[in-house]
């Protein structure tokens, strides 16, 4: 076998190996995809005789290999219990739900949005970004749910996370 033929065979084998490696990294492992983990830190205390203050920290942790860009975050707090029994509920108090949200329309107690109009929130690989929000809720709310929805249009990414807690356990 001549030297030219060896170079051709070696070039073909090298191209195949690089192709398989690239396919595994990009397609199977999602090497260039954003990967964010959402975590809540929630503290609750008595605000006055009729309400609690719920202090939340939404932690966005980039577990991917590339910088994550988040253009929109929506944090909502909803009352799960006690249920509203009145038939004269103002349906405007119930909010539209993002995709993949459970379809039960719980009454919304508060909402905080972060919109990146010009520059998105950028989170480097292996780092975190914290978003803080405080909500005042009435003490009659016994079970509440925090719901976070985030998206990045430039990266075609969206995700949501739900955290439910009992006020009598967390807010005393």
Question: What does this entry look like structurally?
Answer:
Helix content is 17%, strand content 47%. It is an alpha+beta fold. The protein folds into two domains: 1-31; 36-170, Immunoglobulins (Immunoglobulin-like), CATH 2.60.40. The longest helix has 26 residues, at 3-28. It is rod-shaped.
What is the tally of beta strands?
9
Q: Which parts are unreliable, with pLDDT below 50 for 5 consecutive residues or more? A: 86-99
CATH superfamily of the largest domain: Immunoglobulins
- Structural class, by secondary structure, is alpha+beta
Strand and helix order? HEEEEEEEEEH
Strand order of the largest sheet: 5-4-8-9
N→C terminal distance: 83 Å
Number of helices: 2
Give the key terms.
rod-shaped, three-stranded antiparallel β-sheet, 2 domains, Immunoglobulin-like, 172 residues, 9 strands, 2 helices, alpha+beta, four-stranded antiparallel β-sheet
Concise summary:
This protein has helices at residues 3-28, 167-170; strands spanning 36-48, 51-62, 68-70, 72-81, 108-115, 121-123, 128-138, 143-152, 157-166.
Write the layout of secondary structure elements.
Elements: H1 3-28, E1 36-48, E2 51-62, E3 68-70, E4 72-81, E5 108-115, E6 121-123, E7 128-138, E8 143-152, E9 157-166, H2 167-170
Antiparallel strand pairs: 1-2, 2-7, 3-6, 4-5, 4-8, 8-9
């Amino acid at each position: 076998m001549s030297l030219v033929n060896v170079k051709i065979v070696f070039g073909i084998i090298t191209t195949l190996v690089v192709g398989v490696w690239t396919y595994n990294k990009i397609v199977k492992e999602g090497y260039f995809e954003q990967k964010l983990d959402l975590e809540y830190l929630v503290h609750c205390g008595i605000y006055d005789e009729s309400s609690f203050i719920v202090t939340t920290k939404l932690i966005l942790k980039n577990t991917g290999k590339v910088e994550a860009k988040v253009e929109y975050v929506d944090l909502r707090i909803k009352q799960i219990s006690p249920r509203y029994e009145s038939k004269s509920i103002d349906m405007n108090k119930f909010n539209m739900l993002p995709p993949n949200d459970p379809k039960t329309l719980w009454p919304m107690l508060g909402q905080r949005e972060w919109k990146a109009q010009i520059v998105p929130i950028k989170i480097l690989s292996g780092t975190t970004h914290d978003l803080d929000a405080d909500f005042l809720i009435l003490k009659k709310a016994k079970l509440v749910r925090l719901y976070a929805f985030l998206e990045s249009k430039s990266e075609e990414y969206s995700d949501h996370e739900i955290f439910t807690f009992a006020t009598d356990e967390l807010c005393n």
